[in-house]
Amino acid sequence: MNIGILCYPTYGGSGLIATELGKSLADIGHQIHFISYNQPVRLDTFKENLFFHEVSFNNYPLFKYAPYESALTSKIVEVVKVYQIDVLHVHYAIPHAAAAVMAKKILEKKNIQVKVVTTLHGTDITLVGKDKSFEPVVSYSLFESDVVTAVSNSLKIDTYKNFTYDGDIKVVPNFIDSQRFNRKPNEHFRKTIAPNNEKVIVHTSNFRKVKRVPDVLQIFRKIAKHLPAKLLFVGDGPERNSIEEACLACEVCKDVTFLGKQDAVEEILSIADLFIIPSQTESFGLAALEAMACEVPVISTNSGGLPELNITGVTGFTSDVGDIDKMANDALHILQDEHLNQFKSLAKIQSLKYKLDTILPIYERLYDSVIER
Ligand code: GMT
Question: Which residue among 277, 281, 284 has the greatest number of ligand 1 atoms within 8 angstroms of its CB, and so is best to mutate?
């Protein structure tokens, strides 16, 4: 099949999922065309059947807001025509779904058929998309898509709650490359971070408000009162500076390290004993899945799709948003030597449900089914 993939090119989970999916589809022989405003960060290999088309346009002084959606639509029309794209797989509804639907309508006028598969990822539904400045456009784009998927059951329910769309939504969860996300012991690295065999706790995110990163620091302070531990923050984003400042002002400062954006997250997760993800809302929690695949138990909230992934009492624990006392107590329970290994191995087992080899054929069958219609 000739497949167009629309996504954000950044470190966010939707862009990573879209890129890994496209690369894997190319590996099994499909022709893949990424369309975005930059080359996606994980699109780092050359393959003769893997293409990237950059959306760019000349700005004009009249425009207070650059009309990206129009430029994106025109680029989609061009790529579909030139490369005979069968299906467009759109990741994150805003503005990708509307642009794909508009391109489909333009192409219909030229007797060119292209199908649209829209995958909802999270804040396109739970935060940004439901705002009245976007809701009618998102609802219409869902109606006009040939297939709509969501990354968790919770996101599917939120979509019906927040939008007028009442068509089918298929749940296709995030996935993991289990070759890459595997615990690879590195004693040298572990000793550098935790020279006295302290427990290693990790948080990775894009440091947006929705991630509630200050809660991670508060939970860690409570844990550190009871056992020697180190905290690694991985990633970057708008909240990072204020958390670094808060950290400087507290007693655990010497035990906390900010590593910034990292490509080889699996190496950091491989020395971790616990992962904390205290998000306000999280449709799936790809970062938690990556941790579990590296045998790291998870302390998370029970919001969104997190309880579908993190089974409380088994792979970690879930708590109400903001309940940092419970999260710290649960963390201390997991970190007891007599419990830790069992949580680690059950986290790994749970992660195996989300292997790329399982999810890839589901998407392939979806594309097949829309093309045949
Ligand atoms: O919604 C976001 O904050 C961004 C989005 C992204 O582009 O990274 O993340 C969402 O999609 C991921 C991949 O499907 C999910 O694993 C994340 O849970 C989800 N984030 C939220 O719901 C906050």
Answer: 284
* Ligand 1 site, residue 122, Cβ cutoff 6 A: yes
- For residue 79, the model assigns a pLDDT of 98
Please give the CATH superfamily to which domain 187-354 belongs: Glycogen Phosphorylase B; (3.40.50.2000)
Cβ(171) – ligand 1 distance below 6 Å: no
CA pair distance 345, 255, nearest whole angstrom = 26
Domain boundaries, the chain: 2-175+355-371, 187-354
What backbone torsions phi and psi does residue 274 show, to the nearest 5 degrees? -155, 145
**pLDDT tens digits along 153-195:** 999 999 999 999 999 999 999 999 989 999 998 999 999 999 9
Q: How far, in Å, CA of 232 to CA of 296, rounded?
A: 14
Q: What is the pLDDT, as a whole number, of residue 95?
A: 96
53 beta partners: 35
Please provide the CATH number assigned to the domain covering 2-175+355-371: 3.40.50.2000
**Does the C-beta of 343 come closer than 6 Å to ligand 1?**
no
121 Cβ inside 6 Å of ligand 1: yes
